[in-house]
Amino acid sequence: MYTKFKQLRKWVFMSIFNKNNEPRPTTSMMLIIRIAVGGYLEYLAFSLYDGLERPINSSNMLIAIATGVFFVAGLIFIALPLRDLLQGRYEGGVNDPNAGGDEKDDMIEKGE
Q1: Sign of CA dihedral 95, 86, 42, 31
Q2: Could you give the CA distance from residue 34 to residue 70 in angstroms, rounded to a whole number?
Q3: Interatomic CA distance for residues 13 and 9, integer angstroms
Q4: What CA–CA distance (Å, rounded) separates 68 from 61?
Q5: How many CB atoms sit inside 10 A of residue 45's CB?
Q6: Mean pLDDT over residues 4-18, rounded?
Q7: Pairwise CA distance, residues 16 & 76, whole Å
Q8: Distance of CA 28 to CAs 11, 34, 54, 104, Å?
Q9: Helices (H), the chain
Q10: Closest by alpha carbon to 85, among 16, 34, 18, 23?
């Protein structure tokens, strides 16, 4: 059982980090999924907000706090991946440091 756990841990570690222990670049699909999750959290926040009884008292204070947490988390899950998508910070994007250019571009930079 321990070896299966060790194999699982290695698989999870390798899916997050590359061979040099650097974080793998995020794909554009993962950023889109994060935005969708953020949208769902916003939907949950507004659904909870509609269900709150007014005025807020001690019996529904927990729901009010959960509404705020879902709202803020949803904004974060939408804003950060959207920023990364727009700036090209994903695997194969404009600002990907590991993206290989054409040989022509390399030759122009070297002056050949």
Answers
A1: negative
A2: 14
A3: 6
A4: 11
A5: 20
A6: 67
A7: 21
A8: 22, 10, 42, 26
A9: 2-16, 28-51, 61-87, 103-110
A10: 34
Q: 17: which 2 tokens?
A: 């980090």
The DSSP code sequence of 36-64 is: HHHHHHHHHHHHHHHHPPSSP-GGGHHHH
CA distance 106 to 4: 45
Q: What is the pLDDT of residues 24-69, one digit of tens each?
A: 668 889 999 999 999 999 999 999 999 888 888 887 898 899 999 9
Give me the pLDDT at residue 104, please: 46
Count of other CB atoms within 10 angstroms of residue 33: 13
Q: Please identify which residue in the block is written with the tokens 């529904």.
A: 60
What are the residues whose beta carbons fall under 8 Å from the beta carbon of 73, sequence distance 6 or more?
38, 41
- The CB density around residue 78, as the number of other CB atoms within 10 Å, is 18
**pLDDT recorded at residue 51:** 85
